[in-house]
Amino acid sequence: MPLLMATVTDLQSHVTALHSIYLNGSIAYRQATSGISDLNLTVVLTAPLTMEEQHRIASVSQTLRRDYPVISTIDITWVLLDEVLSITAIFKWGFWLKHCSVCLYGTNLSEQFGDFEPCWEIAKAFNHDIAAALVTIEQQIRRTKSISEYQYYCRCAGKKMLRSCFMLVAIYVDDWAYTDQQCANFFLTRYPDKATEIERLFVLINGPQVPKKASLFMLSQFGSWIVNEFNNIERKIG
């Protein structure tokens, strides 16, 4: 709570067009691990950040990470109010704010949406970028020489693939997955032959550290399988 209060106060002080702040991820779901989990936030703005504000936020983030070692990093998603309220983005931002977010500050936009049922539209909204995301993470892993950066990229890769695995089966279940384990459980009920791959994803997320060759292999092999399976379902469902 001290971290969250400090973060909200700092954002209020440094962002002029601030509309609302939402907490996401493991901290929101009360599943965080001290010193390992990230602080994930969605910040809604009424106007884009200025360059000066971007520099201030970068400095504030560094200070918060230093003062609150209970988190490993701060990940902020910035989005404009008009985009959140656009009817074309309802399956992304409507679902995200209603089911995956806790409002910390401002007008709670989740109250403007009803509950969402699992559907392919939501799966596409959150899974359409999987191929490009995995390519980006692969490049980051290949380039980095920092152990801490490498571990962070591995966690990102593992979590991205695990969330995408759940989205592959979301249309067949009657509930939402909020934790890594829930994503794995739902996925394995339909793809039990992928148990080994899921175990390896948890290693990427939680450790122990694996050689780059192993993480790149997972991105290439299992990542490609996820992308192909997503495309197969898309061709069937549309």
TrEMBL record:
InterPro entries tied to this protein: NT_sf
Name the UniProt record assigns to this protein: Nucleotidyltransferase domain-containing protein
Species this protein is from: Photobacterium iliopiscarium
